[in-house]
Write a structure and sequence with these properties.
single chain; 123 residues; mainly alpha; Cytochrome Bc1 Complex, Chain F; Cytochrome b-c1 complex subunit 7; mitochondrion inner membrane
Length: 123
């Protein structure tokens, strides 16, 4: 029951406040030309780092370009021109499928008692 309540609470189709928040995040991402998946930090979660390593290089290069452009615009205190903001698709996912696969593989390895594919190291 609690999980269905939480799903309704965060579902933008069913909750006005969630829809309002999603619109606000979408507008903010469009201003800088980012996608929501660009906000995941590979240094924070090793599953994300592994998922990014498995993606095609064109997708990772496009992600890096979007991040560089966003940092450049932020440093200049500017936004993308309105015509480019209109073309942005901030919630078109490119990482979620691969991330789900990596998490499933990690959970399966843990269930079987196998060694993890990667270890966290302190730099």
């Amino acid at each position: 029951m609690a999980s269905s309540f939480l799903q309704r609470l965060v579902d933008p189709k069913k909750n006005f406040l969630a829809r309002l928040h999603m619109k606000s995040v979408s507008n903010r991402l469009r201003k800088y030309g980012l996608r929501y998946d660009d906000l995941y930090d590979p240094m924070y979660d090793l599953d994300i780092k592994e998922a990014l390593n498995r993606l095609p290089s064109e997708v990772v290069d496009a992600r890096n370009q979007r991040l560089k452009r966003a940092m450049d615009l932020s440093m200049k205190h500017e936004y993308l021109p309105d015509d480019l903001q209109a073309v942005q698709t901030p919630f078109r996912s490119y990482l979620q499928g691969m991330l789900a696969l990596v998490k499933r593989e990690r959970a399966e390895r843990e269930a079987l008692g196998a060694l993890p594919l990667y270890q966290r190291t302190i730099p």
